[in-house]
Amino acid sequence: MELFLDILLVITSALLVLLVLLHRAKGGGLSSLFGGGVQSSLSGSTVVEKNLDRITLFTAAVWLIAILGIGLEIKFS
């Protein structure tokens, strides 16, 4: 079980990083400082962005469950 949770944690960590990087910048943070602030006003929330949000939240939930599972396994072993 410990090996499964470790592998799940590594996979979900890498996937979570990739999914977060795929998101479009919505604020005027550091991305606008380097020229990423020029966007079309017509770029609304599309189905692809909503699905990306859902997949990211699901992956984050699996990541959190893996973290909690590893912590409980360490505590009780």
TrEMBL record:
GO BP, one example? Answer: protein secretion
**Family (UniProt):** Belongs to the SecG family.
Topology of this chain in the membrane: Multi-pass membrane protein
The gene that this protein is the product of is: secG
> What domain of life does the UniProt record list for this protein's source?
Bacteria
Give the UniProt subcellular location, in the record's own words. Cell membrane
Q: One GO molecular function term? A: protein-transporting ATPase activity
- Bilayer-crossing residues are 55-74
Alphabetically list the UniProt keywords. Answer: Cell membrane, Membrane, Protein transport, Translocation, Transmembrane, Transmembrane helix, Transport
Any one cellular-component term (Gene Ontology): plasma membrane
- Please explain the role this protein plays, according to its UniProt record: Involved in protein export. Participates in an early event of protein translocation.
Q: What is this protein called?
A: Protein-export membrane protein SecG
Quote the PANTHER family the UniProt record gives: PROTEIN-EXPORT MEMBRANE PROTEIN SECG
Q: Return the InterPro entries for the record.
A: SecG
